[in-house]
Design a protein that fits this description.
Blueprint lengths: L11 E6 L2 E6 L10 H15 L6 E5 L4 E3 L4 H4 L4 H7 L1 H11 L4 E5 L2 E3 L1 H7 L3 E5 L3 E3 L13 H9 L1 H10 L2 E3 H6 L5 E3 L4 H13 L3 H14 L4 H16 L2 H11 L10
Helix pairs in contact: 1-4, 6-7, 10-11
The structure holds 4-(N,N-dimethylamino)cinnamoyl-COA (DAK).
Length: 264
């Protein structure tokens, strides 16, 4: 299937393949270090895909050598607290999780460090190639994760492993990350992108409404107590019972055919 691009961005490539949109980080000379320009382009690209009715699922990826080596250290070295506050990096990472309702898969190969891992953790699933390396090395340059890393990582892998990664700044293998629940799937190096596309196409074939609501409910689990989360889930389940997609899904099951979902 051919890939088409509507808009041009300086720091990403934005592709469309059928129902999937692909944001490719494109600063290979700096190992996809997250400059402000790159972070802004990622959010703009995602927002464009979010508003495109033909796109049902999204992949964020880098290149085979690097997903991203983290925040741009050269840019950050001149940055003071007021510059950072005004630039609002942190809100941009949060907006990825709050503004983008379509499912996002991070397809990770090579280095996935610092802000790069925080970006992957702001996605809904992480597919990692076998030889990729993940870590929060910010401590080695005198800072710490600042785009949700201390919070999302701890909620994902627990206090003791999060402390290990964040305080030591060490790298872990994709296998360790998988064993710790930090990545969804590990795949052979050569197929990280094709597997991500296969998964994205699979998600694109489901009811967009059910996908959206299920994503919101899983994210709610990281941000609420159990009874609040269960109530949130139940109410959202009731909403889906009224959808045309539910009627179609259940009818298709009885008729032993594939459902055709319309997102209604
Ligand atoms: N920033 C800028 N440039 C980078 C970079 C980075 N993070 N990582 C690599 N580069 C550049 C290198 O400087 C080099 O450029 P030239 O010298 O060729 O011009 C080029 O990419 C290739 O890098 P290497 O020659 O070092 O390549 P190697 O394969 O030898 O090593 C490496 C790869 C990934 C192990 C190494 O480059 C490395 O350790 N990079 C730094 C990784 C790191 O410490 N990352 C964490 C950065 S701190 C916040 C939001 C986010 C954050 C904080 C706050 N707010 C919202 C407030 C996040 C902070 C971070 O991520």
């Amino acid at each position: 299937m051919s890939s088409s691009t509507k808009s041009d961005y300086a720091n990403i490539k934005l592709g469309r393949e059928g129902a999937i949109g692909i944001v490719t980080l494109n600063r290979p000379g700096a190992l996809n270090a997250l400059s402000m320009g790159l972070i802004r382009d990622i959010l703009a690209g995602l927002t464009e895909l979010e508003s495109d009715p033909d796109i049902k699922s999204i992949i964020i990826t880098g290149g085979p050598r690097t997903f991203s080596a983290g925040a741009d250290i050269k840019e950050m070295s001149d940055m003071g607290p007021i510059d950072a506050l005004k630039a609002g990096h942190l809100e941009i990472f949060d907006q990825i999780q709050t503004k983008i309702k379509k499912p996002i898969i991070a397809a990770v190969s090579g280095y996935c460090f610092g802000g790069g891992l925080e970006l992957a953790m702001a996605c809904d699933m992480i597919i990692a190639s076998e030889s990729s390396r993940l870590g929060q090395p910010e401590i080695n340059v005198g800072v710490m994760p600042g785009a949700g890393g201390t919070q999302r990582l701890t909620r994902t892998i627990g206090k003791y492993k999060a402390m290990d990664l964040i305080l030591s700044g060490r790298q872990i293998t994709a296998r360790e990350a998988f064993d710790w629940g930090l990545v969804s799937r590990i795949v052979p190096d050569e197929s990280y992108l094709s597997e991500a596309k296969r998964l994205a196409n699979d998600l694109a074939s489901k009811s967009p409404l059910a996908i959206r609501v299920a994503k919101e409910c899983v994210n709610k689990a990281l941000d609420s107590n159990l009874s609040e989360g269960v109530q949130f889930e139940r109410k959202n389940f009731y909403i889906l019972l009224g959808s045309e997609d539910k009627a179609e899904g259940m009818k298709a099951f009885s008729e032993k055919r594939k459902p055709v979902f319309k997102g209604k």
